[in-house]
Design a protein that fits this description.
The radius of gyration is 29 Å and the shape is elongated. Helices cover 71% and strands 0% of the residues. The relative contact order is 0.11. Helix 1 (11-30) packs antiparallel against helix 6 (125-149) and helix 7 runs antiparallel to helix 8. By secondary structure, the chain is an all-alpha fold. It folds into 2 domains: 3-149, no CATH class; 156-298.
Length: 301
């Protein structure tokens, strides 16, 4: 991991500050309204997200918000009503519109645009609206560029750590399964770890590292194989955890478990084979084989 992650201030916080300053510098030179710095700041802050997809969604919500607020403001300013009356009507219209369209984004930005335009004095509403869109676009473009190019978020290390944690949980599960008592372990913790892995993979899949897309695609395919193997592991473990008591281990599985570092305290000898023993050893053998495949996949073998 990067050394600067040890700082008390997170990378995303630092990137946000840099994006805001850069956007304000650009907007100061090329902005279209008197409040250009404010809207450039809002645009830049909104797009500093962990994934490229989330940044694009933030861009879309900001542009929609500015355009909706600007259009409604232009229409309201054309009516023979006071500014405060226009604000009241505009807020109602915007909220109802967002609800009817089932938009999941907040209506606060278009309401802000509408308030500022309806109470901003005598100025050309159309030009003012276009200026708002332009100022926000500056913040969005600058913020997105910085978010992609400066310390791009990469959670591949978190995925690797999660898979390794899954392997440790697996060894503990098998130790608990064959510790010599009648209490069987629960696969719940493994399911929780896999859920965490799925979330990490979703973040990784929604990220686009500009100069490493091919490498990232290869990594994603590798991690997805790990996820499928992990789910197979849990399915076999759930079968074992539903047995009333575990069967006796075969010498081969006992040797393989010892090679994994598992401490097996169940000393029952497999002097005669029963159905329970067959079921137990089948699933243990599958678990150990899938575990080996998972680790090999993780290590790129």
């Amino acid at each position: 991991m990067y050394e600067y992650r040890k700082l008390p201030v997170g990378l995303r916080t630092i990137k946000t500050a840099i994006a805001v300053i850069a956007a304000m510098i650009v907007a100061d030179q090329f902005g279209g309204t008197g409040d250009k710095l404010v809207f450039a700041m809002l645009g830049a802050m909104s797009v500093i997200e962990p994934t490229f997809k989330a940044s694009l969604e933030a861009c879309l919500s900001q542009i929609i918000g500015v355009i909706v607020g600007a259009i409604i403001s232009v229409l309201l300013l054309a009516l023979p009503i006071s500014g405060l009356t226009a604000v009241g009507i505009g807020i109602i219209v915007i909220i109802v519109l967002y609800n009817k369209l089932h938009l999941r984004i907040s209506p606060s930005l278009p309401c802000l645009i509408m308030v500022m335009m309806c109470t901003g004095g005598n100025q050309n509403p159309l030009l003012y609206a276009l200026g708002r869109v332009w100022d926000t676009a500056i913040g969005l473009i600058v913020g997105t560029a910085i978010n992609m190019l400066l310390f791009p978020y990469n959670n591949s290390h978190n995925i690797w750590v999660t898979v390794k944690s899954l392997d440790r949980d697996l060894v503990h599960f098998l130790e608990d399964m064959f510790d010599g008592d009648r209490a069987l372990p629960d696969a719940k913790k493994m399911n929780e770890t896999i859920s965490s892995l799925e979330k990490q993979l979703n973040i990784f899949g929604n990220q686009r590292l500009l100069f490493h897309f091919k490498q990232q695609k290869k990594e994603l395919e590798q991690y997805q194989v790990c996820e499928r193997q992990a789910k197979k592991l849990v399915s076999h473990m759930e079968v074992l955890s539903q047995l009333e008591i575990p069967g006796r281990l075969s010498p081969e599985n006992r040797k393989r478990l010892a090679a994994c570092g598992a401490e097996i305290r169940d000393g029952r000898k497999l002097d005669s084979v029963m159905e329970l023993d067959v079921v137990t050893n089948f699933h243990v053998s599958q678990i150990l084989s899938i575990r080996r495949e998972l680790l090999d996949t993780l290590n790129g073998k």
